[in-house]
């Protein structure tokens, strides 16, 4: 009994650094960046930036998508198309795009698990990357994601692409200021970004080659050291 109590005290004494489990960038030595695209639910419109996706495929640009459950339900063909591309990676983004910190740990678990389950059962895809809606989380969110075996992915460069007041030039100026080795850039592929396609094209043609940075999937970025992608 005493041994058990001591063990419990020792476990409690270990500082659990939840922040350390939240990934915002790749290694600073890595000459790569992750272009990440959230697929948040949309009420109106196609909810899918076909021109952007076509460009990524034509140019063979590695990219990572975070799909919400509601989005998946409305975009069966698009889910299948994205899962087919070998240089695309697919993670999840909550079921209904809830504000997670307002919910109990159990409610958070259901919200996080929804699209993970759907991708597994309907598409046979194991999605191990998770990005919380709005980038909002608390300790419960991190603990639930870890218990589910998910990697918790945020970003360190905000494109601002869903902001209708920003021009492509303004978004690109922001990217020029912040993009560096190991950056994770958050953008949207659900049609909310009016200039996302143009910005990605300019990134691919100008900014990234100028800085000798290679686009990588999120998982490749995380295991990258100082080697450029093949
Ligand atoms: Zn979102």
Would you mind describing this structure in some detail?
This protein is an alpha/beta fold. The chain has a single domain (33-220), classed as TIM Barrel, CATH 3.20.20.370. Helices cover 41% and strands 15% of the residues. It has nine helices and nine strands. Strands 2, 3, 4, 7, 8 and 9 form a six-stranded parallel β-sheet that branches. β7, α7 (168-178) and β8 form a beta-alpha-beta unit. α7 (168-178) runs parallel beside α8 (196-210). The longest helix has 19 residues, at 105-123. It starts with a helix and ends in an 8-residue tail after the last helix. The structure holds zinc ion (ZN). Zinc ion is lined by residues 38, 40, 93, 97, 133.
What is the compact description of this entry?
It contains 9 helices and 9 strands. With 230 residues, the protein is α/β, with parallel strands linked by helices.
Provide keyphrases for this structure:
single chain, 230 residues, alpha/beta, TIM Barrel, 3-stranded parallel β-sheet, 9 helices, globular, binds zinc ion
Helix content: 40-55%
Rg over CA atoms: 18 Å
Distance separating the two termini: 56 Å
CATH superfamily heading: Glycoside hydrolase/deacetylase
* CATH class division: Alpha Beta
Beta-strand residue percentage: 15-25%
Judging by the overall fold, what is the CATH architecture?
A: Alpha-Beta Barrel
Q: How many individual β-strands?
A: 9
Topology:
Elements: H1 2-13, E1 22-23, E2 32-39, H2 50-58, E3 63-67, H3 69-74, H4 76-84, E4 88-92, H5 105-123, E5 129-130, H6 139-147, E6 151-153, E7 157-158, H7 168-178, E8 184-188, H8 196-210, E9 214-216, H9 218-222
Helix pairs in contact: 2-8, 5-6, 7-8
This protein binds zinc ion (ZN).
